[in-house]
## 1
Amino acid sequence: MNADVFPTNNGSSHLNETKLRSQDVSLFYGKFQALRSISLDIPERAVTAIIGPSGCGKSSYLRLFNRMNDLIPDTRTTGHVELDGIDIYQRDVDVVDVRKRVGMVFQRPNPFPMSVFENVAFGPRRHGIRNREELSDIVERSLRQAALWDEVKDKLAHPGLALSGGQQQRLCIARVLAVEPEVILMDEPCSALDPVATLKIEDLMRTLCSEYTIIIVTHNMQQAARVSDVTAFFMMEDDRAGVLVEAGPTSGLFTNPKQKTTEDYITGRFG
Amino acid sequence: MNMVRRRITQRLAFILLAATTLVVVTPVLFIIIYMAIEGAPALSWEFLISAPRMAGKEGGIFPAIIGTFYLMIGTIVFALPVGVLAGIYLTEYATDNWLTRTINLAILNLAGVPSIVFGLFGLGIFVMLFQFGMSLLAASLTLACQALAMTITTSREAILAVPRELREGSLAVGATRWQTIRHIVLPQSLSGIVTGAVLAMSRAAGETAPILVVGAAFLVPGLPTSPLDRFMALPYHLYTAAAHVPGMPKSIMWGTALVLLAVVLSFNLIAIIIRLRVRRRRYS
């Protein structure tokens, strides 16, 4: 499959290059195979949604792209995961650099137990920015980008944990934006949020995808249909290993799925 | 009918639980009250700030208070850094293999080693092999070895209690593992680590057996001026006064015990206050 053929919503007729590519990727937790030979191209500056029933390996797949699975002992990856054509699992690749370029937003908002300001400044500080003015600029820019500035500009010294759930999640997005990543991975970012907060995050994704490559894992098919340009449908096989069933432009996949399983899933016959 | 029975059962369970709690609390209160009554007559400014006279039968216990204080500081200076660093290594870096499992088993056993064995170990290693002699330094190191089991365990538990989500959030913005430990994990586990350390100190303050053989003395002229001096300590003073000095006034024994208890309890209080302050700073 070739991402170049996917028309995307952000720039009507714009055709996007491949940003991330997984080639025949399998993932093992000890003896358990979580993913089986998955090949998928993720287009640049577009939203790619990964859908599928619980336990089909969506999150595990997402966490391949910033090597978050490395944290789990006894994990083994085969195949190639490429960022801009470079295999990020090669030995000479710096995982810290990968994670700086590929940010991640988690299922539950996880602001650090510090002030709003320090939450956003955390990444830049770790990368060596000390200048207070420069940090302030980054914090303001990131919070504006995350559509949170107006709500928190008078509360920068307040603890991040004092914000509402939806605000916390946007704070976490701002925290990722502050290190100027190229890709943002979102692991069911709205599953802990109410519908209004969910809508705000979805709007934000649509805005951000003009500059960033976004991959979102969601079990909410309406959400995938609303926000994504490309959708990939995962399923598990009999041994519970996740496989990619079908991927393509979102509108096509939802209106005219090629596989019977996909159709059954999106019409709500299982999952 | 059933309803009545259930209510009675609930009532009985409640009474049983409350009674058990009372059983736990009563001896503690009783000990404190009894000691306060017996020891109060001996307590005076003089008792606290002057040196013992007449083999401790008169005068005060000031050198023993200072000695115990030095011991606590000495113990924690060695036991806290090692404990925290080992705790970090074991939780954040060590992979689960036979070596790590052996180390964990060793730490568990360290806590179970009788304290006099630590004393003999200290005598062999610090006093004789390292030539520190019978001294404050040798005693501090000996107590530190004993306290390690506690500082490692409490550090490790405090570090493990930091939610995985926070570590992941930090790593996900490109922080290194060490930066994550330094800026997320350690600040988050600080109150647990400090509490463990202060409790280890108050335990060191109460130890008698280990220091018996590595440098504590019943009567030392003057205060220790170097780490290589011998020293007095409250528990050892109490032990000798009670067991080996005929005609020792009871009030002095109880007074010494009361002071020892006050030192230990005030350190526990400090632990609680530090914990509260850290927690308040985090959430306000």
## 2
Amino acid sequence: MLRLIVVRLLAAVPVLFVVSLISFGLTLLVPGDIAAEMAGPSANRAEVEQIRTQLGLNQPPLERMLHWYGGLLQGDLGRSILLNQSVGSAILERLPVTLSLAGIALLLATLVGVPLGLLAAAKAHKWQDQTAMGGALLGLSLPDFWLGLLLIWVLAVKLQWLPSGGWIPFSEDPVGWLRSIAMPAGVLALNQMGPLARMTRSAALEVANSDFIRTARAKGLAEPRVFARHVLTAAAVPILTVAGISFGIALGGALVIEQVFSLPGVGRLVIGAVLRRDWPVIQGGLLLTAFVFVAVNLIVDLLYLWVDPRLRESR
Amino acid sequence: MKVPALLKRRSFAIGLALVGTVAFCAVFADLLAPFDPVKNNFRYRLGEPNEAHWLGTDRFGRDVLSRILYGARVSLRIGLMVVVASGVIGGLVGLAAGWWPKVDGWLMRIMDGLMAFPGILLAIALAVTLGPSEMTAVVALTVAYSPRTARVMRGAVLVARAQDYVEAARAVGVRTGRILRKHILPATMAPLMVQQTYIFAVAILAEAVLSFVGVGPPPPRPSLGAIIADGRDTMIEAPWIALSPGVAIAMIVLGLNLLGDGLRDALDPRMRNTVR
């Protein structure tokens, strides 16, 4: 068990190295003068030079890279010029908003998507199946930011049930928090529900004809129990895989949806940085979201071992 | 699989109808658009939908329907270019990784690294790095989504490679290039086509996001996402500007996903259970 965990952790190292190379290498691709662009058109030569020194742009690329990696190993992602704050703390401050948004969206998507997929599998090729799968497909085909605008228009502007945006921390007002996160999380969940329901259905259909399912039925188990207990357990690994991938997509979606609902998360920070060319923040944002994604998929890998005892021995 | 047999599959037929409708409107936008999509008309600012302007006008008095028709053209063009570029690049990477075990590890680590970023964030970062333009959007989305194609292609090559006829060809000394061309590539076309149909859908959605956050192709030729972004500020007075382009996007994306499902089921029944 422990050996497996170590092997998985080691396998993540080269991926994280590639991730860091890409995050750093991005600035090498910028065609113009980064310092001049960041300083703005009204800056004088001294201000541009100051930013250049601050970012270390007067050093050759290789030296810059070594310096960047040196900082990275000490947990230093550099400094945001515009915020005058360390990139690490700027992102960590906002990470809870983004993570709770993506997490709750995935939770909602799982709570709806998996039962929906099981229902579709149990009623395969009947109208329940077609309705459920049609709904799932429609959900994953709608642009998330557009759906957000639509919901704001209906639920906030017309019906005035929910606030149109803004963030209330859970610790201040749990009900307000729920109201502020309901729409953005709902939008993301609707997107993520589709792949989960589709995967659950096909994984369930795959095992539905197995001998052990027939045995379960033969011994007189009620159909819902057969599906909830035996089919779902056997189909758990592919469902978990999709959930892991979905988290990455939900994370990306959260970054975008934060713009629509004015939520103070990593997405607002990074996309704000993108529009104002604040490179250290862009690099740090890329690096940290990829890091979170790799960590989540590592956890998913370990969950495989938990849900499927066969995997504990064979590898 | 012949086309008439494909059309009997309901999902394929509905998908084709949806995509076909939007594609037709986009291709013939010059003939179909009732107004010039970029011509301002300040007398009809934020006009409600009426007989002349079916989907109303925006804050410059431009006809929203005409803008959507031309916007669909931009979105589809970018999506199509991403499909071709990621098909070629991802296809070649997957082919190399699947055929030569020596490069497999390296190539797939790079692909894993690229896929560790949320695709949309990587695309946004690349788009701003290279400077917003239509070509940039294509490059950014291709880099972000080619790894998916590479992964599917690699899997298909590994399957084909293990077939007896490939082994036989190698045994009698057929050159590698010829084996790849004659035996491996044809066997990978079905999964590749299905994957690229889904990539088309993803690319359309992602391009809309690029334009929405402001790093897409610059005006005056807006994609569907840019029209939504444009209408966002006037959501309360004129919701039709931001809401109607989304319907067009949803039609294309839903249609492409249905096409992909239909193709997948028709081309290879064994692929019915593969993850997207």
## 3
Amino acid sequence: MTFHITVDGRSVPVVPGQTIGAALHAAGVRSWRSTRFGGRPRGLFCGIGVCFDCLISVNGRAPERACLLEAAPGDEVTTS
Amino acid sequence: MTYDLVVIGGGPAGVAGALTAARAGLRVALVDSGARLGGQYFRHSAVPGAEPGLGRFLRQGRALGERADVLLRHQAWSAAREPDGTLVVHCVTRSSSAPGGGAGERTVAVRARRLLIATGAYDRPLPFPGWDLPGVLTAGGAQALLKGSGVVAGRRIVVSGTGPFLLPVACGLAGAGARVLGVFEAGVGLGLVRQPLLALDKAGEAVRYAVGLARHRVPYRTRQAVVAAHGEREVEAVTVARLDKAWNVLATRVVECDTVAAGYGFVPQIELGTQLGCETRHDVDGSPVLSVDAAQRTTVPGVWAAGEPTGVGGWRLSELEGRIAGLAIVAGHGTAPRTAPAPSTDAAAGPRGDLTTARAPAPGGDPAAAAGRPGEQEMPGEPEVPGELEMPGELEMPGEPGEPGVPVVPGVLVRRRARWRAFGEALQRAYPVEPGWQGWLRDDTLVCRCEEVPLARVREAQDLGATDARSVKLLARPGMGWCQGRICGYAVSCLAGEPPRPPRRPIAQPVTLGALSESGEASDRAPADDPPPHPNPRRSS
């Protein structure tokens, strides 16, 4: 039932319907970008698309909210 | 094409309003950013569990899917009213996720004669040192992870904030296997039983959560809160403080944990309403909310609002308001949308709950809509209340001059709404945010997470003469980043010493320039050209 996505080359299992952010959290990855000024680590905060802290690039696209984006088989995720 | 009604938001208010109108024969579209209906409260995974109210909501959602165009994964970023009264909701949705492709965003404009705003609310966080560390989540964020994706936010979790929402969050996390080290309620907590109204309605629920917390040995401490989070790359510990009545710190201790779930009430989501020019008012807790009359009409012709955007009150109130809005929209269907601003009699309708009127259907109007008593069409699963449909208290729709009025909304719905609204207001009074939290902040504590504005810069702006939140924003930039002040707006207002103001932003969601430039021709792309509900292209392959 589960499928996999790759996070910086590493395989991460996903239950269908899970968001990218949830899949990362479940795999123990809780930060995936750094802030512009302070270089502070950021991941999920509001979890419902309001705060934009969880922006992430999937398949080379412009950053999107990890908390809203459902993971799809073969998605490639890059953290910074 | 132009729909009779477009609803923004697929939670209890939006679904109830859309279904009520669709069952009466109106052509209805509902847009929601999520992959499934439900909003925040009825958020559920692909295989939902058995939560109270959820089964009923899912039945409503299925019924709606058969009668209306449900546009999921559509984010409304703008709503506008054209000179002829047509309402246009601009959405972005994903058209393609080809690897290496562009943003893949596509714009969709949904046009309708009436609009129902049912956009819900989100958590109101308060800043504290370390609140931007990964592992610190809003209470709703932890809940969304669990309900929507089946992921427990952490192993050792501290829940903190104020309000009854902390209880189901803590119970859910503990039930899913997390060690919940404590629920720290900054308020008195007993507010729930001191309010006779609350004790009456919520006692059973409160007892259930109390039992749940006890079963998992979760301590519930009032007048305590997380006032700082510590760690390098993630949260590793928090400082829990004992507070006085004004939330000033009396004593502290350190608790080791890997996750914090914090929430201090809710912020109604009203951007699309303020974009359209809807009047706002301050709710009991000071939050700006959309002003509506007894029929849930805003002050802009053709625009209704239901649920949390009109005042936070929970899912039952939201569903009732959605139904009432739906009934009122059905009653007014067949008439031209008012082109003039709302008459002064509407504006003077005063406190919500007054009787109001809607126009009679024009001769030759939609027969389904004019077919008498739409209120008799109960929602699926709604228990009938025999004998309670008496006239007093009903919302009436007057006929032509000299003719008797036609009842629009059954009195029982009006009375239930009044009861749940009073309950929502009592909750807001029982769990206020006290000013002492400002003392938890240090000079280097970020107030605005997006623009990384620390408290010191806010104070600097005030020293330079910024006397209100807007001036602070212009000088120090809090609220100018990605979230547009949704997260820090409340805190900045408090620091500036004023109640939060309605948002003054031109768009409700960030949108790419590409999508923006494309939106000019979007009206040619009738959503009916796409087979709704929109499957994710990636899923269909």
## 4
Amino acid sequence: MQQYIARRLLQGLFVIIVVTLIIFLLVHLGGDPVRLMLPEEAPEEAKEALRIRLGLDQPLHYRYFLFLQGLMRGDLGDSFRYNEPAVKLVMERLPTTATLAFLSMVLSTLIAIPLGILAAIKRNTLLDLFASSGAVLGRAMPNFWLGIMLILFFAVFLGVLPVSGFDSPRHLILPVITLGTGMAATVTRLVRSTLLEVIGLDYIRTARAKGLSKRVVLFKHALRNTMIPVITVIGLQVPALVTGAVITESVFAIPGVGRLTVAAVSRLDMAVVQASVLVVSIAVVLVNIGIDIIYTIIDPRVRYD
Amino acid sequence: MKNCRVGLVSFLMVLLLLFSSGLAEAQKLTIGVPVDMETLDIHDHQSMVGEAVAVNIYDYLYFRDKGGELQPALATDWELIDDYTWRFYLREGVKFHNGEEFNAQSVKVTLERVAQDSGLTNHTHYSTIEKVEIIDDYTVDIITNVPDPILINRISRTGSGMLPPEYFQEVGMEGFIQNPIGTGPYKFVEWQRDGYVRLEVFEDYWRGTPEISEVEFRVIPEASTRISELLTGGVDIALEIPPFEKPRIDSRDGKRTIDSPTIRVMLLYVRLMEGYPTEDLKIRMAIDLAIDRQLIIDEFLEGAGTPVRSRLLPGAFGFNERLYDVDVYNPTRAKHLLREAGYEDGGPTIEIMGPHDRHAVDREVLEAIGAMLEEVGFDVNLEILSWSAVTSRVADRDHSEVRWANLANTLWDGGLAVDYLRYERSDDVIGFDSPEYSELVLAAAQNMDLEEREKQYQKIAEWIAEERLMIHLFQLDTIYGVDESVIWEPRVDEMIWVYDISLDSED
Amino acid sequence: MKKILKSPVGMVGLFLTSLALICAIFAPVLSPHPPQQQNITQRLVPPAWHPDGTSEHILGTDYMGRDVLSRIIYGSRTSITVGITAVILAGAIGLALGLLSGYKGGVWDSVIMRFVDAFMAIPSILLIMLLVGVLRPGVVSIIIILGVTRWITYARVVRAEVLQVREMDYVTAIVSLGQKPWKILLKHIFPNISASFMVVATLNVANVIIAESSLSFLGIGVPHHVITWGSMLAIGREYISVAWWIATFPGVAITLTVLGIIFLGDFLRDTFDPRLRG
């Protein structure tokens, strides 16, 4: 167990290094990083200081080393507009986005798993068609569209929920539905197809042949094995949730990492964008490691994966 | 005994009444704004919203009224000692939010910082200030390094909000922006970036205690969300209402819209250098004459605009009446001009670049202009990009013949409107290599003879209009959505001066 | 062919997908007006069945007085092209790396899988925003961006399938018989993975069409002269309260097409996946 955790952590560290490498290369090979990080009107002294800080007269591998060193200290440059460390700005916003993403994840799982099971059991019936269409509809609606619709219906037309903001639990309802719908659709489809696959497997057929009732087989054997890939995929949906959160935060005026990044892009404050990509990606890696570890504790069979 | 109880109950009821009326008096105003302010450092930002918020926390030496006329504020009077020396007499008995006294030291600390630190965004507007000399506690001389006829305009805008000298020197700007202090009618409470800025009333304000006791600026980028908040009572005032949404708000009980002229002008920059079709005056004239400004104003702005041929609006120094509220639309003549310029069948290909995310109907206006130019024979390539993409392409000098801009004249002066065309300023971005022009502009900028100076700017403006050195389109109005309880007349400079706003509490 | 007639899901999928493809191919014939033709005095005309509508514009006109129906018909071209090419790009990268990783194993596998993990952790939209400063906005950039951020799913699926197939008895047998690796890949492994590959691909076409819309919402989507359903929806949303038809009809077009593609994918999987047979 401990060995597994250690291995998983090491793996995670390696992934984080690869993440930093990808982002570093994109920023440094795509053109002049100073042009990217600082707007044209920035004073020459600031540009020169950045050139030195990034080590632009040095070879690429040395620059990468400088970059990693900065990352260790939590120093990824200052926001040109806010005049504050970019990492600090991102960290301040992270809890808001994390709350939004977490609640959406919980909501979508609660809806999607029963729906997916139903669709699988009643495969190729009208019910399946209905559940599948619902799932597709959930996916086919861009977040911003769904969000605006929900505001117009629940807040303006019915007047039962607040329009925007992030102040109280009531403010969270619409954004969480907006963000959760896409994921609910994905998970519904996943549960359906995995369950179908599992039902088709030999041991389930054997269990059925042994005379166990359909219900027992389904709930005792098939479902348990379905949940393993489903939980893994839910973990892997985290980046997609962040992508959705960027849009959702814009619609509902929620001050999370997404709003910060969108505003930074529109002001060409790329130090903040870089910091937010890095911080969020690292957070996602850590969350996934966490899920994996918790998961081994719950289900010892996966340990040797 | 019984009486006693009755007495107690009535006493409690009176208390309750007092308490509840106290609550009703604590009036709160919430304003939905489209973008967040950038920083609380008043010397280092250039956003309209930033100033619209900051104006409530700080006072200037002079302050414009609703229509744009300069009125005494922290200074009560001024006089010109010589071409380089401006003397200001300061208001006595003004206190900062922390109790510090406003005096000459404050003027010195505030203005010398922005005049000397070239790293600050607002520095360019204050670089003519050499130093501030303290004559006595309530008299200062501002010494300029060149004759600067518009110093008074500089000290009545953002960047000249007076800072408390002792506190500021004690904590530095780093500490100051954590908890900024001014003499303004509202005290800073909290800023959650991209969330809100909260202010509370400053009881000892020198003009008298403001009526509204709490103010919140809420950042709501999506226009539809901002309007929804207005309609459901989440905000009392919503900024930047897209014109086509006006009927929806006006038809709501208890909500209305206010059209207010601004100091912003929409215009087209044209490249004047060799190698671009717009080098030819005939082509530039054809562009100018092909655009039906009034149709655009009627259809896309719901009438909220005025066609112009200059950036100088009523109230600005150098305003030229002949170039205001005129529409030169003449498509037949535009077609002739293209033929004269040598384009017999089909005009030249021109690229027009502009953003779609600055103001409400930028995209629509750009697309309409594109179609109008094609109508007279141009072959138009529209590049409608995000604002950041536009800026970075201009920075790379990688842009086309025609570039859209939407600019405010925060100095209310001819200088700001025409200076950019000088080759020394805009080099190949515009490419107007005319020493004569540069000379004239520089002479006007430092001319202390105001009458002559005014004529100079009028002449420059006519030059620009005749030669189509820039093609001006229209002065924009902005539309506010407000709750009926809000009693307010918006300002031309788009500052949200809450001191002038009150709430009708019967509502 | 018989199977598709029996499956309601398959039928619906086939019908909707063909409809979109027909629109894309025959756009000039089908659309009643040139899609870019403005008429400023005829802005925001509602659909024909509305009392203020005209039969000139069956689905109404947009904020520039352009015919919504014609724009939807033309929009199908770019939307479907972007969807399919981005997926082909992502699929090609993913397939190559997935095969390499699954077949070669060892260091290859470890390195590729760490890159997969890393790309999986980076939220695509943040990556795209970081690239905004580097890339010129354009359809090709959008295809590259959407393709490059999506290859990981394929790589994972392909690798998993390859690992599974490799362990199957008959493949082991062929390997020991000394057949060339690429022949084994082509003849034995590839047919086995194509079903799951197709499912992921169909899902992804749908995802890309929607992602393109989100980019337009954030103002970093296709250039304005390119008509796509996504950008029509994103820009039309501003008018949702005064002219619902501008955004709603492109939205319906997206939904129906995505529905069609996904159903078709489901049908293909349910029919051809060897593990689901019988």
